[in-house]
Amino acid sequence: MSRDVASIEGLSVAFGRPPTQVLALRSVSLTLRAGQITGIVGESGSGKSTLALALIGLLPQAARVTEGAIRIGNQNIAGLPEARLRAIRGARVSMVFQDPMTALSPSRTIGGHLLDAQHRDRASGRSALRTRAIEVLRKVGVPDPAAQLDRYPHQLSGGMRQRVAIAMALLGRPELLIADEITTALDVTLEAQILHLLRELRSEIDGAILFISHNLGAIAEICDQVAVFYAGELVEEGPVRDIFHSPLHPYTRALRDCDPARIEGAARHLPSIPGETPVVRAPPTGCIFAPRCSLATELCRTKVPVWAAIAEGRGVRCHLAVSKT
Ligand code: SF4
User: Which residue segment(s) compose the domain that 225 sits in?
Assistant: First the structure.
């Protein structure tokens, strides 16, 4: 078993205060291991992005961790002051966003961005930093990398900008790389290239990759482990093959069964399930998925299902699934 890079232990995050608060994450536990790509899947409002922001210490001011721990290595970063989080960001945890312009300033050259991303190594000298920037650009598939250093973000295509954003994230040699919907704005060809790149990086970086997407096909294609989120809860986790071939939770099954062809095909975005993800303001009194679950019983409506670990890296939160295992 490979080393644990990050572990989220019983994490709950709330936005605002009662009675209008939103319980964005509730008692989430998840371990991210070196050499693995873990996929996070779920509809809008499932808590995917809140989890990513918590992991990199970028939760908005209105959010607070109400319980639990976020360990990067042995260090619990939940509740650390901003100055200490800044030392972790980029160096131990890096994030790439859907829109690469989130990380790129239109008025700075690509070289300027890549030198800034290595500010902790500035004692090595400008020439060494420039050489490393070229190396990393080459690694992420940017052609003629030396020539790109003098260009501005608007002079690059969307796919190239995303590669530059990935290069910036890699320059700090992070243990954990978070990719949040990074292929969503790209066309199918560019998406395939970026997925291929992530797969290559898995074996090259000495760390873990967290791949957040509502694209089931992309998850199935590159992830080793998958965590399924619904309305702020982790409802199922397992190896990618188990999640797609023998899902245990009715929500996972519904995602997969809505349109199986899309999972294999090119336009493989998350299909829609009848009903809506609820906004949770108070701890639920039954299964949070019950209003949308065709298998719901009285027990489901009156008792919250607890997380049941079935095997190493395999678990589910569902009364029915547990009774069958
Ligand atoms: Fe459906 Fe009941 Fe399982 Fe919830 S606990 S997912 S309502 S079967």
Answer: 4-92+174-263+271-283+307-318
Cα(305) to centroid(ligand 1), Å: 8
d(CA 170, CA 93): 10
Claim to verify: residue 81 and residue 178 sit in the same structural domain:
yes
Q: Which of 285, 320, 323 to mutate to test the pocket of ligand 1 (most atoms within 8 A of CB)?
A: 320
Query: pLDDT tens across 76-118, in order?
Result: 999 899 999 998 998 899 999 988 888 899 999 999 999 999 9
Number of structural domains in the chain: 2
pTM across the whole model: 0.91
Decide if 137 is inside a domain.
yes
Distances (CA, A) of 68 to 76, 79, 110, 197, 301: 9, 10, 39, 33, 26
* 4 strand-pairing partners: 33
Q: Are 93 and 55 in contact (CB under 8 A)?
A: yes
Residue 41 inside a domain? The answer is: yes
Q: What are phi and psi of 322, to 5 degrees?
A: -65, -40
Query: Is residue 293 lining ligand 1, measured as CB closer than 6 Å?
Result: yes
Quick one: which atom of ligand 1 is closest to the CA of 319? 5
